[in-house]
Automatic annotation (TrEMBL):
Residues 97-329 form the Calcineurin-like phosphoesterase domain. InterPro entries: Calcineurin-like_PHP, Metallo-depent_PP-like, STPP_CPPED1. Residues 604-620 have a biased composition (Polar residues). SUPFAM superfamilies: Metallo-dependent phosphatases. PANTHER family: CALCINEURIN-LIKE PHOSPHOESTERASE DOMAIN-CONTAINING PROTEIN, METALLOPHOSPHOESTERASE, CALCINEURIN SUPERFAMILY. It comes from the Eukaryota. This is Calcineurin-like phosphoesterase domain-containing protein. Residues 601-620 are annotated as: Disordered. One of its GO terms (molecular function) is hydrolase activity.
Protein backbone atom coordinates (compact mmCIF):
# COMPACT_ATOMS: atom_id res chain seq x y z
CA UNK A 1 0.00 0.00 0.00
CA UNK A 2 1.08 3.54 -0.59
CA UNK A 3 2.41 5.14 2.56
CA UNK A 4 0.13 7.97 3.74
CA UNK A 5 1.38 11.43 2.85
CA UNK A 6 0.86 12.46 6.47
CA UNK A 7 3.63 10.08 7.46
CA UNK A 8 6.29 11.76 5.36
CA UNK A 9 9.24 12.30 7.61
CA UNK A 10 9.84 15.71 9.06
CA UNK A 11 13.32 15.13 10.39
CA UNK A 12 14.35 17.27 13.37
CA UNK A 13 16.17 20.37 12.25
CA UNK A 14 19.36 19.34 14.03
CA UNK A 15 19.40 16.04 12.14
CA UNK A 16 18.32 17.47 8.81
CA UNK A 17 21.24 19.88 8.77
CA UNK A 18 24.03 17.93 10.39
CA UNK A 19 25.41 16.53 7.14
CA UNK A 20 24.85 19.53 4.96
CA UNK A 21 27.11 22.40 4.10
CA UNK A 22 25.49 25.21 6.05
CA UNK A 23 23.73 27.90 4.00
CA UNK A 24 25.66 30.92 2.79
CA UNK A 25 23.56 33.23 4.94
CA UNK A 26 24.79 31.46 8.05
CA UNK A 27 28.44 30.58 7.63
CA UNK A 28 29.65 32.02 4.36
CA UNK A 29 29.49 35.76 4.04
CA UNK A 30 32.14 35.79 1.33
CA UNK A 31 29.61 35.67 -1.55
CA UNK A 32 27.89 38.83 -0.28
CA UNK A 33 31.26 40.54 -0.14
CA UNK A 34 32.23 39.43 -3.62
CA UNK A 35 28.89 40.35 -5.16
CA UNK A 36 28.54 43.71 -3.49
CA UNK A 37 25.91 42.54 -1.04
CA UNK A 38 25.35 43.88 2.45
CA UNK A 39 28.14 43.04 4.89
CA UNK A 40 26.90 41.72 8.22
CA UNK A 41 28.40 42.72 11.54
CA UNK A 42 29.85 39.21 11.86
CA UNK A 43 31.71 39.35 8.55
CA UNK A 44 33.02 42.81 9.42
CA UNK A 45 34.30 41.45 12.71
CA UNK A 46 36.03 38.59 10.92
CA UNK A 47 37.66 40.94 8.43
CA UNK A 48 38.88 43.18 11.24
CA UNK A 49 40.55 40.20 12.92
CA UNK A 50 42.03 39.04 9.63
CA UNK A 51 43.40 42.48 8.80
CA UNK A 52 44.98 42.84 12.23
CA UNK A 53 46.94 39.61 12.09
CA UNK A 54 47.14 38.38 8.54
CA UNK A 55 46.84 41.23 6.05
CA UNK A 56 48.43 40.04 2.81
CA UNK A 57 49.74 43.48 1.86
CA UNK A 58 50.64 46.33 4.16
CA UNK A 59 48.13 49.17 4.54
CA UNK A 60 45.63 47.42 2.28
CA UNK A 61 41.93 47.12 3.14
CA UNK A 62 41.44 43.37 3.35
CA UNK A 63 37.67 43.69 2.95
CA UNK A 64 38.20 44.47 -0.75
CA UNK A 65 40.87 41.81 -1.33
CA UNK A 66 40.10 38.73 -3.41
CA UNK A 67 40.62 36.10 -0.72
CA UNK A 68 40.79 33.26 -3.22
CA UNK A 69 44.11 34.59 -4.55
CA UNK A 70 47.12 32.43 -3.78
CA UNK A 71 49.94 34.46 -2.28
CA UNK A 72 53.65 33.71 -2.40
CA UNK A 73 54.69 32.37 1.01
CA UNK A 74 57.69 34.64 1.50
CA UNK A 75 55.85 37.80 0.48
CA UNK A 76 52.89 36.92 2.68
CA UNK A 77 55.06 36.19 5.69
CA UNK A 78 56.98 39.44 5.41
CA UNK A 79 53.75 41.39 5.08
CA UNK A 80 52.06 39.53 7.91
CA UNK A 81 54.85 40.06 10.40
CA UNK A 82 55.50 43.70 9.60
CA UNK A 83 51.81 44.61 9.46
CA UNK A 84 51.10 42.92 12.76
CA UNK A 85 54.02 44.51 14.54
CA UNK A 86 52.84 47.92 13.41
CA UNK A 87 49.40 47.33 14.91
CA UNK A 88 50.63 46.24 18.31
CA UNK A 89 52.53 43.05 17.59
CA UNK A 90 51.95 39.44 18.49
CA UNK A 91 51.27 38.44 22.08
CA UNK A 92 51.40 35.30 24.18
CA UNK A 93 48.14 34.09 22.61
CA UNK A 94 49.50 34.11 19.03
CA UNK A 95 50.37 30.75 17.48
CA UNK A 96 50.98 28.94 14.19
CA UNK A 97 50.58 25.21 13.54
CA UNK A 98 51.51 23.28 10.41
CA UNK A 99 49.29 20.25 9.81
CA UNK A 100 50.33 17.39 7.53
CA UNK A 101 47.87 14.81 6.23
CA UNK A 102 48.67 11.20 5.34
CA UNK A 103 52.38 11.15 4.45
CA UNK A 104 52.72 7.54 3.23
CA UNK A 105 56.46 8.00 2.86
CA UNK A 106 58.05 5.88 0.13
CA UNK A 107 61.86 5.94 0.49
CA UNK A 108 62.14 5.64 -3.30
CA UNK A 109 60.07 8.78 -3.92
CA UNK A 110 61.29 11.53 -1.61
CA UNK A 111 61.19 14.46 -4.03
CA UNK A 112 57.72 15.67 -3.05
CA UNK A 113 58.61 15.48 0.64
CA UNK A 114 61.73 17.59 0.17
CA UNK A 115 59.75 20.15 -1.80
CA UNK A 116 57.09 20.12 0.90
CA UNK A 117 59.71 20.73 3.56
CA UNK A 118 61.05 23.67 1.55
CA UNK A 119 57.51 25.06 1.35
CA UNK A 120 57.12 24.95 5.13
CA UNK A 121 60.51 26.26 6.23
CA UNK A 122 59.95 29.97 5.51
CA UNK A 123 56.50 29.82 7.07
CA UNK A 124 57.85 28.42 10.33
CA UNK A 125 60.92 30.67 10.32
CA UNK A 126 58.80 33.81 10.10
CA UNK A 127 56.50 32.59 12.88
CA UNK A 128 59.48 31.67 15.05
CA UNK A 129 60.82 35.19 14.62
CA UNK A 130 57.44 36.79 15.28
CA UNK A 131 56.28 34.94 18.41
CA UNK A 132 57.86 31.48 18.65
CA UNK A 133 54.59 29.67 19.40
CA UNK A 134 54.82 27.03 16.69
CA UNK A 135 54.27 23.33 16.22
CA UNK A 136 54.09 20.76 13.43
CA UNK A 137 51.38 18.07 13.69
CA UNK A 138 51.29 14.91 11.59
CA UNK A 139 47.91 13.21 11.30
CA UNK A 140 49.44 9.75 10.87
CA UNK A 141 49.71 7.10 8.16
CA UNK A 142 53.43 7.77 7.96
CA UNK A 143 54.54 5.02 5.56
CA UNK A 144 53.52 3.52 2.23
CA UNK A 145 51.41 0.38 2.65
CA UNK A 146 53.39 -1.71 0.16
CA UNK A 147 56.87 -3.06 -0.31
CA UNK A 148 59.27 -0.22 -1.10
CA UNK A 149 62.43 -2.24 -1.86
CA UNK A 150 63.54 -1.44 1.69
CA UNK A 151 64.30 -4.93 3.01
CA UNK A 152 66.32 -7.33 0.87
CA UNK A 153 65.84 -10.10 3.42
CA UNK A 154 62.06 -9.90 3.00
CA UNK A 155 61.09 -8.51 -0.41
CA UNK A 156 57.38 -8.88 0.41
CA UNK A 157 57.45 -6.82 3.62
CA UNK A 158 55.18 -3.78 3.77
CA UNK A 159 57.00 -0.55 4.59
CA UNK A 160 54.24 1.01 6.71
CA UNK A 161 54.59 0.46 10.44
CA UNK A 162 58.16 -0.86 10.35
CA UNK A 163 60.96 0.51 12.53
CA UNK A 164 62.62 1.92 9.41
CA UNK A 165 59.38 3.65 8.42
CA UNK A 166 59.04 5.39 11.77
CA UNK A 167 62.72 6.34 11.86
CA UNK A 168 62.47 7.99 8.43
CA UNK A 169 59.26 9.78 9.42
CA UNK A 170 60.79 11.00 12.69
CA UNK A 171 63.79 12.38 10.80
CA UNK A 172 61.54 14.14 8.28
CA UNK A 173 59.17 15.64 10.84
CA UNK A 174 61.89 16.55 13.32
CA UNK A 175 63.88 18.52 10.76
CA UNK A 176 61.10 20.48 9.13
CA UNK A 177 62.36 23.77 10.56
CA UNK A 178 64.83 24.67 13.29
CA UNK A 179 63.27 24.99 16.72
CA UNK A 180 59.84 23.71 15.66
CA UNK A 181 58.65 20.68 17.68
CA UNK A 182 56.45 18.05 16.14
CA UNK A 183 53.61 15.87 17.36
CA UNK A 184 52.21 12.79 15.65
CA UNK A 185 49.21 10.54 16.16
CA UNK A 186 48.73 7.03 14.80
CA UNK A 187 46.64 6.34 11.73
CA UNK A 188 45.28 3.08 10.38
CA UNK A 189 48.61 2.12 8.73
CA UNK A 190 51.06 3.00 11.50
CA UNK A 191 50.91 -0.41 13.21
CA UNK A 192 51.10 -2.31 9.91
CA UNK A 193 54.57 -3.72 10.56
CA UNK A 194 53.07 -7.20 10.58
CA UNK A 195 56.24 -9.00 9.43
CA UNK A 196 58.43 -7.29 12.03
CA UNK A 197 56.09 -7.31 15.03
CA UNK A 198 53.78 -10.05 16.26
CA UNK A 199 51.44 -7.82 18.25
CA UNK A 200 49.92 -4.35 18.16
CA UNK A 201 51.48 -3.72 21.57
CA UNK A 202 55.03 -4.32 20.28
CA UNK A 203 54.42 -2.21 17.18
CA UNK A 204 52.90 0.61 19.24
CA UNK A 205 55.87 0.65 21.62
CA UNK A 206 58.29 1.19 18.72
CA UNK A 207 56.02 3.87 17.25
CA UNK A 208 55.98 5.79 20.53
CA UNK A 209 59.68 5.30 21.32
CA UNK A 210 60.81 6.41 17.86
CA UNK A 211 58.73 9.59 17.99
CA UNK A 212 59.49 10.36 21.63
CA UNK A 213 55.90 9.83 22.76
CA UNK A 214 55.14 8.57 26.28
CA UNK A 215 51.54 7.82 25.23
CA UNK A 216 49.60 7.31 21.97
CA UNK A 217 47.90 10.67 22.59
CA UNK A 218 49.47 14.06 23.15
CA UNK A 219 48.70 17.41 24.73
CA UNK A 220 50.85 20.49 24.05
CA UNK A 221 50.21 24.05 25.19
CA UNK A 222 51.19 26.03 22.11
CA UNK A 223 50.16 29.47 23.43
CA UNK A 224 48.44 31.10 26.37
CA UNK A 225 45.29 29.10 27.23
CA UNK A 226 45.64 27.19 23.93
CA UNK A 227 46.09 23.41 23.77
CA UNK A 228 46.89 21.08 20.89
CA UNK A 229 45.46 17.62 21.63
CA UNK A 230 45.91 14.45 19.58
CA UNK A 231 44.30 11.01 19.82
CA UNK A 232 45.88 8.05 18.03
CA UNK A 233 44.77 4.71 16.64
CA UNK A 234 46.15 1.78 18.66
CA UNK A 235 44.62 -1.27 16.96
CA UNK A 236 45.50 -3.06 13.72
CA UNK A 237 45.95 -6.82 14.17
CA UNK A 238 43.26 -6.97 16.83
CA UNK A 239 40.65 -4.96 14.92
CA UNK A 240 37.23 -6.67 15.15
CA UNK A 241 36.55 -5.85 11.51
CA UNK A 242 38.68 -4.04 8.93
CA UNK A 243 42.21 -3.21 10.07
CA UNK A 244 41.82 0.19 8.46
CA UNK A 245 39.28 1.38 10.98
CA UNK A 246 40.82 4.15 13.08
CA UNK A 247 40.33 2.99 16.66
CA UNK A 248 41.03 5.24 19.65
CA UNK A 249 41.12 3.02 22.73
CA UNK A 250 38.93 3.60 25.77
CA UNK A 251 41.86 4.76 27.92
CA UNK A 252 42.48 7.66 25.53
CA UNK A 253 38.79 8.52 25.40
CA UNK A 254 38.66 8.65 29.21
CA UNK A 255 41.82 10.79 29.31
CA UNK A 256 40.39 13.14 26.69
CA UNK A 257 37.11 13.56 28.54
CA UNK A 258 38.91 14.35 31.78
CA UNK A 259 41.14 16.89 30.00
CA UNK A 260 38.06 18.65 28.66
CA UNK A 261 36.47 18.78 32.10
CA UNK A 262 39.60 20.36 33.60
CA UNK A 263 40.06 22.90 30.77
CA UNK A 264 36.61 24.47 30.32
CA UNK A 265 35.67 27.25 27.96
CA UNK A 266 34.55 29.33 30.95
CA UNK A 267 38.22 29.52 31.99
CA UNK A 268 39.18 30.79 28.50
CA UNK A 269 40.71 27.48 27.35
CA UNK A 270 40.80 26.86 23.60
CA UNK A 271 41.49 23.32 22.42
CA UNK A 272 42.43 22.16 18.91
CA UNK A 273 42.05 18.41 18.33
CA UNK A 274 43.88 16.18 15.85
CA UNK A 275 42.90 12.64 14.82
CA UNK A 276 43.58 10.56 11.73
CA UNK A 277 39.91 10.06 10.82
CA UNK A 278 37.14 12.55 11.62
CA UNK A 279 34.45 11.82 14.21
CA UNK A 280 30.93 10.83 13.30
CA UNK A 281 28.89 14.04 13.35
CA UNK A 282 31.63 16.28 11.99
CA UNK A 283 29.47 17.11 8.98
CA UNK A 284 32.37 16.66 6.53
CA UNK A 285 30.79 15.65 3.23
CA UNK A 286 33.71 15.01 0.89
CA UNK A 287 34.76 11.44 1.65
CA UNK A 288 35.76 8.22 -0.08
CA UNK A 289 33.07 5.67 -0.89
CA UNK A 290 35.36 2.78 0.05
CA UNK A 291 35.68 4.19 3.58
CA UNK A 292 31.90 4.30 3.91
CA UNK A 293 31.06 0.83 2.61
CA UNK A 294 33.93 -0.85 4.46
CA UNK A 295 33.16 0.66 7.86
CA UNK A 296 36.31 2.72 8.34
CA UNK A 297 35.11 6.26 7.66
CA UNK A 298 34.76 7.66 11.20
CA UNK A 299 36.68 7.25 14.45
CA UNK A 300 35.77 3.92 16.10
CA UNK A 301 33.35 3.37 13.23
CA UNK A 302 32.16 -0.14 14.12
CA UNK A 303 31.64 0.56 17.83
CA UNK A 304 28.33 2.39 17.98
CA UNK A 305 28.74 3.85 21.46
CA UNK A 306 32.33 4.98 21.03
CA UNK A 307 31.70 6.22 17.50
CA UNK A 308 29.14 8.73 18.74
CA UNK A 309 31.06 9.60 21.92
CA UNK A 310 33.37 12.09 20.21
CA UNK A 311 30.63 14.37 18.87
CA UNK A 312 28.88 14.15 22.25
CA UNK A 313 32.04 15.51 23.87
CA UNK A 314 32.20 18.28 21.26
CA UNK A 315 28.62 19.24 22.04
CA UNK A 316 29.25 19.27 25.78
CA UNK A 317 32.62 21.03 25.88
CA UNK A 318 32.78 24.31 23.99
CA UNK A 319 36.47 24.70 24.66
CA UNK A 320 36.97 22.51 21.55
CA UNK A 321 37.44 25.10 18.82
CA UNK A 322 38.61 23.02 15.84
CA UNK A 323 39.20 19.39 14.89
CA UNK A 324 41.59 18.40 12.09
CA UNK A 325 41.69 15.02 10.34
CA UNK A 326 43.04 13.30 7.23
CA UNK A 327 42.39 9.71 6.09
CA UNK A 328 40.49 10.40 2.85
CA UNK A 329 43.41 11.60 0.68
CA UNK A 330 41.17 14.32 -0.76
CA UNK A 331 41.96 17.98 -1.29
CA UNK A 332 41.05 21.18 0.52
CA UNK A 333 39.51 23.08 -2.40
CA UNK A 334 35.98 22.00 -1.50
CA UNK A 335 33.95 24.06 0.95
CA UNK A 336 32.55 20.75 2.19
CA UNK A 337 36.02 19.94 3.55
CA UNK A 338 35.36 22.46 6.36
CA UNK A 339 32.24 22.62 8.53
CA UNK A 340 31.36 25.35 10.99
CA UNK A 341 30.00 25.02 14.53
CA UNK A 342 26.66 25.55 16.12
CA UNK A 343 25.20 29.04 15.89
CA UNK A 344 22.34 30.61 17.86
CA UNK A 345 19.09 28.99 16.72
CA UNK A 346 17.49 32.33 15.89
CA UNK A 347 20.17 32.97 13.27
CA UNK A 348 19.65 29.86 11.16
CA UNK A 349 19.78 26.06 10.98
CA UNK A 350 21.18 24.42 14.07
CA UNK A 351 23.62 21.53 13.50
CA UNK A 352 24.85 20.65 16.97
CA UNK A 353 28.61 20.72 16.55
CA UNK A 354 29.25 22.63 19.74
CA UNK A 355 31.76 25.40 19.19
CA UNK A 356 33.97 23.33 16.87
CA UNK A 357 35.11 23.78 13.28
CA UNK A 358 35.98 20.52 11.50
CA UNK A 359 38.61 20.54 8.75
CA UNK A 360 39.84 17.84 6.41
CA UNK A 361 43.52 17.69 5.44
CA UNK A 362 44.99 16.61 2.09
CA UNK A 363 48.33 14.91 1.28
CA UNK A 364 51.83 16.05 0.36
CA UNK A 365 52.94 13.43 -2.19
CA UNK A 366 51.25 13.26 -5.58
CA UNK A 367 51.19 9.47 -5.70
CA UNK A 368 49.01 9.33 -2.59
CA UNK A 369 46.39 11.90 -3.68
CA UNK A 370 43.02 10.57 -4.81
CA UNK A 371 42.08 13.80 -6.59
CA UNK A 372 45.51 15.02 -7.73
CA UNK A 373 45.85 17.74 -5.09
CA UNK A 374 48.95 18.14 -2.90
CA UNK A 375 48.12 20.34 0.09
CA UNK A 376 48.68 20.82 3.81
CA UNK A 377 46.78 22.83 6.41
CA UNK A 378 48.02 25.95 8.17
CA UNK A 379 46.37 26.98 11.44
CA UNK A 380 47.16 30.42 12.83
CA UNK A 381 45.42 32.45 15.48
CA UNK A 382 45.34 34.36 18.76
CA UNK A 383 42.89 35.23 21.54
CA UNK A 384 40.43 36.76 19.04
CA UNK A 385 40.05 33.76 16.73
CA UNK A 386 41.90 31.73 14.15
CA UNK A 387 42.28 31.12 10.44
CA UNK A 388 42.53 27.88 8.48
CA UNK A 389 44.65 28.05 5.34
CA UNK A 390 45.91 25.80 2.56
CA UNK A 391 49.61 25.44 1.77
CA UNK A 392 49.66 24.43 -1.90
CA UNK A 393 52.60 22.14 -2.65
CA UNK A 394 51.87 22.26 -6.38
CA UNK A 395 52.39 26.03 -6.36
CA UNK A 396 55.64 26.41 -4.44
CA UNK A 397 54.01 26.60 -1.03
CA UNK A 398 51.61 29.44 -1.79
CA UNK A 399 49.13 30.13 0.97
CA UNK A 400 45.39 30.47 0.49
CA UNK A 401 43.04 31.58 3.25
CA UNK A 402 40.18 29.06 3.46
CA UNK A 403 38.20 30.11 6.53
CA UNK A 404 38.22 32.82 9.18
CA UNK A 405 36.74 32.09 12.60
CA UNK A 406 36.23 34.79 15.23
CA UNK A 407 35.25 34.28 18.85
CA UNK A 408 32.11 36.03 20.03
CA UNK A 409 32.68 34.74 23.53
CA UNK A 410 34.11 31.63 25.14
CA UNK A 411 31.36 29.39 23.76
CA UNK A 412 30.39 30.89 20.39
CA UNK A 413 32.18 31.80 17.19
CA UNK A 414 31.45 32.84 13.63
CA UNK A 415 33.00 31.15 10.61
CA UNK A 416 33.33 32.45 7.07
CA UNK A 417 34.40 30.60 3.92
CA UNK A 418 36.97 32.74 2.18
CA UNK A 419 36.83 31.21 -1.31
CA UNK A 420 34.29 29.56 -3.58
CA UNK A 421 34.09 25.80 -3.98
CA UNK A 422 36.73 24.52 -6.39
CA UNK A 423 35.53 21.04 -7.32
CA UNK A 424 36.47 19.81 -10.80
CA UNK A 425 34.59 17.52 -13.17
CA UNK A 426 37.27 14.83 -12.93
CA UNK A 427 37.08 14.68 -9.13
CA UNK A 428 35.99 11.28 -7.85
CA UNK A 429 34.60 11.20 -4.33
CA UNK A 430 31.48 10.25 -2.40
CA UNK A 431 29.62 13.41 -1.44
CA UNK A 432 27.44 12.81 1.61
CA UNK A 433 23.88 13.64 0.65
CA UNK A 434 21.48 15.48 2.93
CA UNK A 435 17.74 14.80 3.12
CA UNK A 436 16.13 17.38 0.87
CA UNK A 437 12.58 18.48 0.19
CA UNK A 438 11.30 16.33 -2.65
CA UNK A 439 13.05 13.16 -1.48
CA UNK A 440 10.94 10.26 -0.33
CA UNK A 441 11.16 10.51 3.46
CA UNK A 442 9.22 8.27 5.81
CA UNK A 443 8.85 7.23 9.40
CA UNK A 444 8.05 3.53 9.63
CA UNK A 445 7.59 3.73 13.38
CA UNK A 446 5.49 2.21 16.13
CA UNK A 447 2.53 4.53 15.55
CA UNK A 448 2.32 4.05 11.77
CA UNK A 449 0.68 1.53 9.45
CA UNK A 450 1.75 -2.10 9.37
CA UNK A 451 3.04 -1.76 5.80
CA UNK A 452 5.37 1.08 4.84
CA UNK A 453 5.91 1.13 1.08
CA UNK A 454 9.14 3.02 0.50
CA UNK A 455 9.21 3.01 -3.30
CA UNK A 456 5.46 2.39 -3.84
CA UNK A 457 6.12 -0.61 -6.12
CA UNK A 458 8.40 1.50 -8.30
CA UNK A 459 11.81 -0.03 -9.01
CA UNK A 460 14.89 1.59 -7.50
CA UNK A 461 17.00 3.51 -10.03
CA UNK A 462 20.28 5.41 -9.77
CA UNK A 463 18.20 8.57 -9.26
CA UNK A 464 16.11 7.23 -6.36
CA UNK A 465 16.59 9.15 -3.12
CA UNK A 466 14.61 7.74 -0.21
CA UNK A 467 15.07 7.86 3.56
CA UNK A 468 13.22 6.17 6.38
CA UNK A 469 13.41 5.70 10.11
CA UNK A 470 12.40 2.30 11.46
CA UNK A 471 10.57 1.56 14.68
CA UNK A 472 13.96 0.67 16.17
CA UNK A 473 15.08 4.24 15.28
CA UNK A 474 17.58 2.88 12.74
CA UNK A 475 17.82 5.02 9.59
CA UNK A 476 18.18 3.49 6.12
CA UNK A 477 18.44 5.29 2.81
CA UNK A 478 18.75 4.71 -0.93
CA UNK A 479 21.42 6.73 -2.70
CA UNK A 480 23.42 6.08 -5.88
CA UNK A 481 21.55 2.81 -6.34
CA UNK A 482 22.75 1.43 -2.99
CA UNK A 483 21.01 0.81 0.31
CA UNK A 484 23.00 2.43 3.12
CA UNK A 485 22.59 2.77 6.86
CA UNK A 486 22.95 6.18 8.51
CA UNK A 487 23.60 7.16 12.09
CA UNK A 488 20.28 7.72 13.83
CA UNK A 489 21.49 10.92 15.51
CA UNK A 490 23.90 12.61 13.08
CA UNK A 491 22.73 11.02 9.79
CA UNK A 492 26.36 10.31 8.91
CA UNK A 493 26.68 7.30 6.58
CA UNK A 494 27.68 4.14 8.47
CA UNK A 495 27.97 1.49 5.81
CA UNK A 496 26.67 -0.57 2.94
CA UNK A 497 23.53 -2.70 3.30
CA UNK A 498 22.88 -3.68 -0.34
CA UNK A 499 24.96 -3.09 -3.47
CA UNK A 500 23.67 -1.66 -6.75
CA UNK A 501 23.63 -5.15 -8.23
CA UNK A 502 21.38 -6.36 -5.42
CA UNK A 503 19.00 -3.39 -5.37
CA UNK A 504 18.52 -1.76 -8.77
CA UNK A 505 15.20 -2.59 -10.43
CA UNK A 506 13.59 -3.76 -7.19
CA UNK A 507 11.17 -2.15 -4.75
CA UNK A 508 11.53 -1.71 -0.97
CA UNK A 509 8.82 -2.22 1.64
CA UNK A 510 8.89 -2.33 5.44
CA UNK A 511 6.38 -4.67 7.11
CA UNK A 512 5.66 -5.69 10.69
CA UNK A 513 6.62 -9.18 11.80
CA UNK A 514 3.85 -9.19 14.42
CA UNK A 515 6.01 -8.93 17.53
CA UNK A 516 6.44 -5.99 19.88
CA UNK A 517 9.47 -5.80 22.13
CA UNK A 518 9.55 -3.94 25.44
CA UNK A 519 12.43 -1.49 25.50
CA UNK A 520 12.96 -0.25 29.07
CA UNK A 521 13.20 3.53 29.13
CA UNK A 522 14.97 5.77 31.64
CA UNK A 523 12.80 6.24 34.72
CA UNK A 524 11.27 9.62 35.31
CA UNK A 525 11.06 11.11 38.80
CA UNK A 526 7.62 9.68 39.54
CA UNK A 527 8.53 6.14 38.56
CA UNK A 528 12.03 6.03 40.00
CA UNK A 529 12.49 2.93 42.12
CA UNK A 530 9.59 1.03 40.52
CA UNK A 531 9.91 -2.20 38.58
CA UNK A 532 10.59 -1.47 34.91
CA UNK A 533 8.23 -4.07 33.44
CA UNK A 534 5.37 -1.61 33.03
CA UNK A 535 7.53 1.36 32.06
CA UNK A 536 8.76 0.59 28.58
CA UNK A 537 8.51 1.67 24.99
CA UNK A 538 6.90 -0.77 22.59
CA UNK A 539 9.21 -1.31 19.63
CA UNK A 540 7.61 -3.12 16.71
CA UNK A 541 9.79 -5.76 15.15
CA UNK A 542 9.96 -5.03 11.44
CA UNK A 543 11.22 -6.65 8.27
CA UNK A 544 12.84 -4.71 5.43
CA UNK A 545 11.87 -6.44 2.18
CA UNK A 546 13.40 -6.06 -1.28
CA UNK A 547 10.94 -7.25 -3.94
CA UNK A 548 12.09 -8.29 -7.42
CA UNK A 549 9.08 -7.13 -9.44
CA UNK A 550 9.87 -9.44 -12.37
CA UNK A 551 10.48 -12.73 -10.55
CA UNK A 552 8.49 -11.97 -7.36
CA UNK A 553 11.47 -13.11 -5.32
CA UNK A 554 11.52 -11.27 -1.98
CA UNK A 555 14.80 -10.75 -0.13
CA UNK A 556 14.67 -10.09 3.62
CA UNK A 557 17.31 -7.61 4.79
CA UNK A 558 18.27 -9.13 8.13
CA UNK A 559 19.87 -6.88 10.76
CA UNK A 560 23.09 -7.72 12.56
CA UNK A 561 23.01 -9.15 16.08
CA UNK A 562 23.42 -5.63 17.51
CA UNK A 563 20.43 -4.33 15.55
CA UNK A 564 22.42 -2.44 12.93
CA UNK A 565 22.03 -3.20 9.22
CA UNK A 566 25.30 -2.24 7.55
CA UNK A 567 27.56 -5.08 6.52
CA UNK A 568 30.24 -5.64 9.11
CA UNK A 569 31.97 -8.25 6.99
CA UNK A 570 35.45 -6.93 6.23
CA UNK A 571 37.80 -8.70 8.64
CA UNK A 572 41.16 -7.40 9.74
CA UNK A 573 44.19 -7.85 7.54
CA UNK A 574 45.79 -10.63 9.59
CA UNK A 575 42.71 -12.86 9.29
CA UNK A 576 42.48 -12.28 5.54
CA UNK A 577 46.19 -12.98 5.02
CA UNK A 578 45.86 -16.35 6.79
CA UNK A 579 42.86 -17.22 4.64
CA UNK A 580 44.76 -16.37 1.47
CA UNK A 581 47.69 -18.55 2.55
CA UNK A 582 45.29 -21.47 3.03
CA UNK A 583 43.86 -20.82 -0.42
CA UNK A 584 47.36 -20.82 -1.91
CA UNK A 585 48.10 -24.15 -0.22
CA UNK A 586 44.90 -25.57 -1.75
CA UNK A 587 45.85 -24.27 -5.20
CA UNK A 588 49.27 -25.89 -4.95
CA UNK A 589 47.65 -29.16 -3.82
CA UNK A 590 45.20 -29.40 -6.73
CA UNK A 591 47.88 -28.43 -9.24
CA UNK A 592 50.04 -31.34 -8.10
CA UNK A 593 47.17 -33.85 -7.84
CA UNK A 594 45.22 -32.94 -10.97
CA UNK A 595 47.92 -31.45 -13.15
CA UNK A 596 46.09 -28.13 -13.48
CA UNK A 597 47.72 -24.88 -14.44
CA UNK A 598 47.51 -21.92 -12.08
CA UNK A 599 44.45 -20.38 -13.75
CA UNK A 600 42.48 -23.63 -13.71
CA UNK A 601 43.46 -24.35 -10.12
CA UNK A 602 42.25 -20.96 -8.89
CA UNK A 603 38.85 -21.54 -10.50
CA UNK A 604 38.51 -24.93 -8.82
CA UNK A 605 39.15 -23.73 -5.27
CA UNK A 606 36.25 -22.84 -2.95
CA UNK A 607 36.13 -21.86 0.71
CA UNK A 608 33.53 -22.35 3.42
CA UNK A 609 32.95 -18.99 4.99
CA UNK A 610 30.27 -18.96 7.62
CA UNK A 611 28.91 -15.41 7.29
CA UNK A 612 31.73 -14.32 4.97
CA UNK A 613 31.94 -14.62 1.22
CA UNK A 614 35.50 -13.79 0.18
CA UNK A 615 38.98 -12.72 1.22
CA UNK A 616 38.34 -9.28 -0.24
CA UNK A 617 39.09 -6.23 1.86
CA UNK A 618 36.21 -4.41 0.19
CA UNK A 619 32.52 -4.94 0.94
CA UNK A 620 31.72 -4.17 -2.70
Amino acid sequence: MKFPRSKILQLPLAIMTTMMMMPTTVVSFAPSLQRGGKVSRHSTQAIRFSTLLFDKKQNKDTSTTDRSELVDANQWLEAAVSSTLKTGGFDESSFLVGILGDLHIDPRKMEDYEEGKNDWKPIFEAAQQAHGNTCLVSLGDLGESKNCDHNEANPAELFAGTTLCHEMAADFLGNMAEGVPYEVIGGNHDLEGIDEFDTDKENLEVFMKTHGKPTPHFCRQVADKTLLVGLGSTVFRDAPFTSHEVIVDQAQIDWFENLLKTHPADDDWKIFVFTHAPPNGSGLRIIQENHVVNGCCWLNHSNEGQCRKFIELVREHRSIKAWFSGHFHLGQDYQDSITFPTIPMEEGPYPNRGSCVFAQTSVMRKGTARDGRQQSRLLRGNKDGFEICTVDHQAGGKIRLDATITYRDNSHEVGIYMHDDKAYEHDNYFKVYQPTEGDLQFVCGADTDEVCSITDDDPVTMETKAWWRLSSNRVLGVLNGMLLEYDQSTLAPLGLVLTKEELLGKSITVVDSGIEECIVDDFDDENEGMEGAEHCIKEREQAVLVHDLETNIVTIVQPNEDGSYWRKIVRNKIARMKEKRREQAAIQYIQERAGMDDKEAKKSIQSTWGPYTSTSGNAL
